[in-house]
Amino acid sequence: EGQVCADGACHELPVANFTFVGNGCTAACSILFTNSSTDAISYSWNFGDGNSSTQASPTHEYLAGGTYTVILTATNAHGTSTKSEQVLIQSSTQQQLPNASFTINNNGCTASCNVQFTNTSTDATSYSWNFGDGGSSTGTNTNHTYSQGGSYTVTLTATNQYGSDDYQQTVTIDNAPTSLRITNVAILGMPLTDNGSNWDLDGAGDIYFDLLTEGQAIVLSSNGAAQTDVTSLPISWNVTNPYLVSNLNQQYYVNLYDYDSTSGDDYIAQTYLFDFTSSSYPATITKTGPNGVSIRFSVTWQ
Question: What are the residues whose beta carbons fall under 8 Å from the beta carbon of 227, sequence distance 6 or more?
Fold first, then answer.
């Protein structure tokens, strides 16, 4: 037994044997196999998970939980021998699978606008973003520009060698406003003189403005509610019935006047032509003109 004899000579047959360390570990984990075979010159390992080795004493990593039958085949010139053992690998979903997650900055902005996404996933090696409007990315952290208002479902797929995980959030983009209402007008600066006319620092006269279209039509005026006893700037007027600008491309300008009983209306200066188009939709808009004219509009976008 253990020998093969022929032509008057006997030879030892190999005897396969091994031990291992790490049984019962939690995937992903490695098992160390120690070869204790005798009379062998080559080895073939089958680890039971589709992988193999020809090393004498290999180390093998198991990526998923399960019970694996490990077979060692020991060989010499006269025959072979096999030895099998079962290896138990514990499963752990938390360790094997990634956990996808992200936060959003600038959600609720007004189109067209850029939204930033910060990846807070764990145990992932690659990422795939779907922004819900046909756009995508494979970056870790990313940003995306939404050109139109609406609600978009953003999906992040986080992947590693064990599998993938999806996480979704909704991005809400407001439609760009098509009009605004002027709620307050303030004079921040204006020249002391214009063609020889002076506005009344001594408070003897009234200061007012006219907002006009390019075709000279007055659309909003503080005449009749002029500021009296003006000694310093700024001065401002609340618009009782906020003026509607329904065409943001309409051209406007502002004339400034100083009225007093002795010389009537003194024209002071005017702003440059302007419109109310904007991509940032601020709460206040300041327009300027020559000689230090500066007018601030407080607005609400619609």
Answer: 206, 207, 208, 235, 237
